[in-house]
Design the sequence.
């Protein structure tokens, strides 16, 4: 028999943990200078696996206002994305772009559609969060489509006395980091905001 948590605090904890995972991913890809394809795959894979575990736990143990079916589907998509980072053969730069675009398109569409459907049934913070995160994830997929993994631009900085190369992987990792930062801030604000209280109805004298 499964233990299930049904308090609003459990709901908030899941949202906050998801925000923290996204924030960790954003910090890692922002402050690591050597953004090689291998690093990009490893960073995304760890993020995907960690988020999958959280979402599976949410579906199994937390019975709040979020749909457990949505959590299970998203968890499966994150898990598949993490596994594909290792299973797909080929150049790591190309694998990173393929996995991120596929994951972002699928997860973004699922979460966005589920959020819109939930809002039509009954507007709620959970539906709002799903729409926002799903929309941002779908946008990441669309923007990443225009980035070529084979892109490379050589440039030099005289003050540094050396040349640098801007690659498609660096741009792709930057886009993923920007997405993670936006999602982290949005979810953290939602998790830490006070829950609106229903006002009691007043009786006429």
Sequence:
């Amino acid at each position: 028999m499964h233990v299930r948590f049904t308090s609003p605090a459990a709901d908030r904890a899941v949202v906050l943990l998801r925000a923290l995972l996204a924030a960790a991913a954003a910090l890692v890809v922002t402050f690591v200078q050597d953004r090689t394809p291998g690093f990009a795959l490893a960073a995304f894979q760890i993020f995907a696996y960690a988020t999958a575990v959280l979402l599976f736990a949410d579906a199994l143990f937390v019975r709040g206002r979020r749909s457990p079916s949505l959590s299970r589907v998203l968890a499966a998509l994150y898990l598949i994305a993490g596994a594909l980072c290792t299973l797909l053969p080929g150049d790591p730069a190309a694998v990173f772009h393929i996995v991120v675009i596929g994951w972002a398109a699928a997860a973004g569409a699922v979460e966005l559609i589920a959020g819109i459907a939930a809002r039509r049934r009954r507007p709620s913070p959970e539906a709002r969060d799903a729409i926002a995160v799903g929309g941002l994830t779908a946008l990441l997929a669309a923007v990443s489509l225009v980035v070529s993994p084979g892109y490379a631009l050589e440039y030099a900085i005289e003050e540094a006395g050396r040349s640098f190369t801007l690659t498609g992987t660096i741009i792709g990792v930057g886009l993923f980091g920007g997405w993670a930062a936006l999602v982290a801030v949005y979810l953290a604000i939602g998790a830490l905001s006070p829950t609106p209280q229903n006002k009691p109805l007043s009786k006429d004298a």
